[in-house]
Amino acid sequence: MTRPTPLPSDLEIASAATLRPVAEVASDLGVAPEHVEPYGRDVAKIDLAAAANEPRGKYVVVSAITPTPLGEGKTTTVVGLTQALRRLGSNAVATLRQPSMGPTFGIKGGAAGGGYSQVVPMERLNLHLTGDFHAITAAHNLLAAAVDNHLHFGNELDLDLRNITWRRVMDVNDRSLRNIVVGMGARADGLVRETGFDITAASEVMVLMTLATSYQDLRARLGRIVVGYTGEGKPVSAEDLGVAGAMAVILRDALKPNLLQTLEGGPALVHCGPFGNIATGTSSVVADQIALSHADLVVTEAGFGADMGAERFFNVKCRVGGLEPDAAVIVTTVRALKVHSGRYDIKAGRPLPESLLAENPDEVRAGLDNLRAHIEIVRAFGVSPVVAINAFPQDHDSEHEVIRELAAEMGVRCAVTRHVAEGGAGAEDLAREVLAAAEEPAAFIPTYALEDSLTDKIEAIATQVYGADGVDYAPAAARALATYENAGFGELPVVIAKTHLSISSDPSLMGAPTGWRLPVREVRANVGAGYVYAIAGDMRTMPGLSRHPNAERIELSADGTITGLS
Amino acid sequence: MTRPTPLPSDLEIASAATLRPVAEVASDLGVAPEHVEPYGRDVAKIDLAAAANEPRGKYVVVSAITPTPLGEGKTTTVVGLTQALRRLGSNAVATLRQPSMGPTFGIKGGAAGGGYSQVVPMERLNLHLTGDFHAITAAHNLLAAAVDNHLHFGNELDLDLRNITWRRVMDVNDRSLRNIVVGMGARADGLVRETGFDITAASEVMVLMTLATSYQDLRARLGRIVVGYTGEGKPVSAEDLGVAGAMAVILRDALKPNLLQTLEGGPALVHCGPFGNIATGTSSVVADQIALSHADLVVTEAGFGADMGAERFFNVKCRVGGLEPDAAVIVTTVRALKVHSGRYDIKAGRPLPESLLAENPDEVRAGLDNLRAHIEIVRAFGVSPVVAINAFPQDHDSEHEVIRELAAEMGVRCAVTRHVAEGGAGAEDLAREVLAAAEEPAAFIPTYALEDSLTDKIEAIATQVYGADGVDYAPAAARALATYENAGFGELPVVIAKTHLSISSDPSLMGAPTGWRLPVREVRANVGAGYVYAIAGDMRTMPGLSRHPNAERIELSADGTITGLS
Q1: Does B561 touch chain A (CB under 8 A)?
Q2: Engineered SS bond to A499: which of A30, A507, B283, B416, CB 3.0-4.6 Å?
Q3: What domain range includes position B174?
Q4: CA B545, CA B560: separation in Å to the nearest integer?
Q5: To 5 degrees, how large is the angle CA B112–CA B113–CA B119?
Q6: How confident is the model at residue A2 (pLDDT cuts 50, 70, 90)?
Q7: Cross-strand bridge partners of residue B562
Q8: A271–chain B nearest CA distance, Å
Q9: Residue A217 contacts by C-beta under 8 Å, 6 or more apart in sequence?
Q10: How would you classify residue A298: left for phi > 0, otherwise alpha for psi between -120 and 50, otherwise beta?
């Protein structure tokens, strides 16, 4: 059992770091100076021209078992693993999502990673960075203004006012904007109608940016965005409204990934940040393409457990981007496996019970079904899994041993990693396993063919990935699926928006639930981004602030120093 | 008479320019490399530490006669004059406002300057630049979210729901957001109330940024922002809501001015962009302080005619920033003086009539009262005026001669400038006059003392600057003034929001109107920014898009090239 002295806070560790000039970081990665545009001293944008036609590096995704509401450390693992790989002489790079600024002022400060496995500069990462989220907000809202402007000037395209799906976005936690009425006032102030705001991370433009492979593709996808439907049910697009080119112009610089660094000075590409529930929850294809052009090994993250993030990573991101994954890390913790024993009643937003900390290998064993299911999910894609035991100071060796036994039994590589407390040095065992796994021959197999019907795709994910017995559609969902097939959206991949706290759609079901059916309440289409999503749960797309949000603790001193960010 | 071949478009000229590395531009200005943070290759932010305690340069403001709706070329004159001054060996720098992005997609593309007197890179200038407007939007809207969050959690501060003055902002032309109802939906979605959005340029935070002199001052002003009033009429501030520190953190980098360059490679500091009607319409104090610390001569701009922009520049910006102006350029055009003859019925948004182009020195003479009034306005501040005749290709020498005669009669320096067609070379005569004027002893005298009552201040501007016979207050305006005096806001300077198309408050009155009274309909307080404003006209704070906005003509090509921006 390890009981080190308590770590300093993430902000303390990040603030104490001496950052390398970003030009050196880029040069280590192998990106030519003409493709590096500095944004401040420690951040740069990388030109899309830095991508080669063919990847040279191995491609590793970090996924996890079904997490507790606290999260099990995927991002810290991406950073720690990358740091370790560089220590072992591999030119490794981490590719990650950018944190959303709004929630930084909500419940807690942001961060990418934690302890001695973080991406820095932490303050810029959590605030504006290079303004990409702002650009996405502006492009999204220009389209919204064009919709209402079109209605104001006579609605030539015959948009059905009761069927306009395009809302507005803002990167702020503001519950009062969820449902609003616009166009109040006089005749010159537009048409009165109900609509609302989502947080920018939930914008279709955000996920579209992660899936666009070039400026040309960006422009084309923007044009295909559907803003609503005519009285006869015909989709109306951003192209129809004539503003897709202007949106692309607003997004031009935002399509260039941002280069930051790990605490150990290695490269980290941070780009975009779509939601993990209604969207793919992955960073961008272009960042990974650039990374794979230069690095020996690219480590990226897919949101939530392998049922959620990894499934979408494989079926949507890899397929759209023509990316071939070589290995998948499954982050596992003792505490989460204990929760999967079913002996705890865990509620989101509350701390885990103290009793979880007692040495109890049997309780870990009782939760192993969840890990087993995630290993099988990854294997079904033809990709080598590696189990990463993300060690906490309160863990006991006997508990780690139980996990190792399962891995051995299933013939899966496994390592304990202590990157939060020890940085890259603590993840070297994991790095060696990942290097070995990535060398194994991989044969990537998606869950479904794009030519399959939308219902077949949803069924394939529900039964083959989640282990459901089948799918039940609410009448509105069935109607929407028929509409989308008719409108020609049938060949899009699908995303299923469900809870991330269970492999099933019921957040209270731990382990590997069986004997359940997936209830699809509603189906929507992000035609521009390029997928249809089925909603099987409550999806909040605009968070609120708490009674006393973190904003009250954040302060700027006279010399410009920031405190309270985490 | 000059009839050159037609000029290429602003975008063509800007695109053809070869930009100097921004580090060289900074070095020429005299800013040390440690204070220069590159944002891309051709833009940098300048650290506030680059400002010295004492200014070393002369300070020149560019104002104008009462303009036609097309504008008479103040910005081009700032740029052309700075280019000319550098040609003459003076280390001159231009300080300018950043154009607002929203309107770029509205009626026309943006720009700073025109022809061969522009600030570049034009595309970045007109889009996100370094994200300052986005940061201002985010800080403003965090406060708005905090207001509604406070109401949602019980309204401990007893805000009167009918007297909440803080709205939201966005940098987009979107008429449907002018008046909205928020908080629709369920109990968890906040309180239902009516509010709205303004464009970001109209945000109090925008003008606050231009008047803040340090991080400490920024933080203090943010805390003083009034968001509304209690049932008993007591103001409630951002400090009361506890989020002023977080707002300051969001704005930290935005308080650093942006260094760009003129087409001739000289330095231009571009920073913030408050409205010229309800706000001061000037760029920031900190940019000018930095500029004055290094340059021989700083040329800045004040919005609209001298009655509007120069008055606020002197009475508000110079006083708040402790800045001492040395000379004021009054930009004059033949076409505007002809309009001031009163013989034309000019409408905003429509082209000027062809008949204006005929040689007609008498018509110019008939409009001279307007120029005379602006010269007297500038002189009353104890500052040397210089008349700049901004020559158009259609002008006739006889028409210029009429203007020269008035200047001679009044003992005012005067020069013709052809900077749009010829760049700095065309403004060298003007530059010589400005250098001479700036060497004359100046004794800056504000129009009123800060200790005067608010009504005395409004009256002083109306009678002494505008030439009104007096002021009439609507009952609500009189009540508001009494409330502000009682609340302790009586020592703030004032801004009068009126039309810029006449020295009077009636846009149809040309020349130098007499025999009229200023009707003040409403009075509001921007307590955080630090001024009270009286409204004497219709002030639109959220523009709309036209039927076929410029957004429809803006396009991104596959190689990332932007077209249609102007």
Answers
A1: no
A2: A507
A3: 135-240
A4: 26
A5: 60
A6: very low
A7: B556
A8: 17
A9: none
A10: beta
* Separation in Å, CA B548 to CA A187, A398, B10, B108: 19, 70, 21, 11
Q: Residue A443 in contact with residue A452, Cβ under 8 Å?
A: no
A19 touching chain B per CB within 8 A:
no
**What percent of chain B is helix, strand and coil (3-state, nearest 5)?**
40, 20, 40
CB atoms under 10 Å from CB of A418, counted, come to 25
Q: Which of A118-127, A452-461, B77-86 has the lowest mean pLDDT?
A: A118-127
> Which of B170, B556, B563 best probes binding to A when mutated, by most A CB atoms within 10 angstroms?
B556
Least Cα separation, residue A172 to chain B (angstroms) = 7
CB atoms within 10 A of CB B324: 14
The reply to whether residue B551 touches residue A142, judged by beta carbons under 8 angstroms, is: yes
Give the one of B128, B555, B556 whose C-beta lies nearest to A131's C-beta: B128
Which chain A residues in 156-175 lie under 8 Å from chain B, judged by CB atoms? 170-175
Is residue A150 assigned to a domain?
A: yes
- B2 annotated to bind ligand: no
| Closest Cα in chain A, distance from residue B490 (Å) | 27
pLDDT mean over B168-189? 97
- Is A41 exposed, middle or buried (CB count within 10 Å of its CB: 0-12, 13-18, 19+)? middle
Is residue A185 a known part of a binding site?
Answer: no
Q: Which of B240, B263, B289 is the last residue of a domain?
A: B240
Which tokens in the block code for residue A555?
């302060």
The verdict on B108 touching A (C-beta cutoff 8 Å) is: no
Domain end marker among A230, A253, A276: A253
- CA distance linking residue B84 with residue B79, whole number of Å: 9
In a domain, B560, yes or no: no
Please judge whether A176 and B153 are an interchain contact, meaning their C-beta atoms are less than 8 angstroms apart.
no
- Judged by a CB distance cut-off of 8 A, whether residue A243 touches chain B is yes
Distance of residue B43 Cα from the nearest chain A Cα, in angstroms: 9
Task: List pLDDT tens digits, range A101-129.
Answer: 998 888 765 668 899 999 999 999 999 99
Contact A145 B176 (CB under 8 A): yes
Least confident of A362-366, B230-234, B263-267: B230-234
Cβ distance of A243 and B551 shorter than 8 Å: yes
**What would the 3-class secondary structure string for A62-75 be?**
EEECCCCCCCCCHH
Mean pLDDT of B170-180: 97
What was the pLDDT predicted at A109?
Answer: 52
Domain CATH code at residue A146: 3.30.1510.10
Q: Is B185 within the bounds of a domain?
A: yes
- What confidence tens digit (pLDDT) does each residue in A146-189 have? 999 999 999 999 999 999 999 999 999 999 999 999 999 999 99
Query: Regarding predicted confidence, which is higher, B148 or B14?
Result: B148
The pLDDT value given to residue A25: 98
Answer whether B174 sits within 8 Å of A557, measured CB to CB.
no
CATH number at residue A523: 3.10.410.10
Per the DSSP assignment, residues forming a β-bridge with B520 are B473
- Domain count of chain B? 2
Q: Is residue A220 domain-resident?
A: yes
Q: Distance (Å) from the C-alpha of residue B346 to the closest C-alpha of chain A?
A: 23
Burial class (CB in 10 A: 0-12, 13-18, 19+), A491: middle
How many whole angstroms separate alpha carbon A291 and alpha carbon B425?
A: 48
Find all residues with CB under 8 Å of A385, minimum gap 6, and list them: A327, A328, A329, A330, A374, A375, A378, A379, A412, A413, A437
Residue B75 has pLDDT above 50, yes or no: yes
| Segment holding B384, helix H or strand E | strand B384-390
Q: Which residues in B211-240 are b (16+ Cβ under 10 Å) and which e?
A: bbbbbebbbbbbbbbbbbbeeeeebbbbbb
Element (H, E) at B141: helix B132-152
Could you tell me which chain B residue has the CA closest to the CA of A562?
B249
* B101 interfaces chain A, CB cutoff of 8 Å: yes
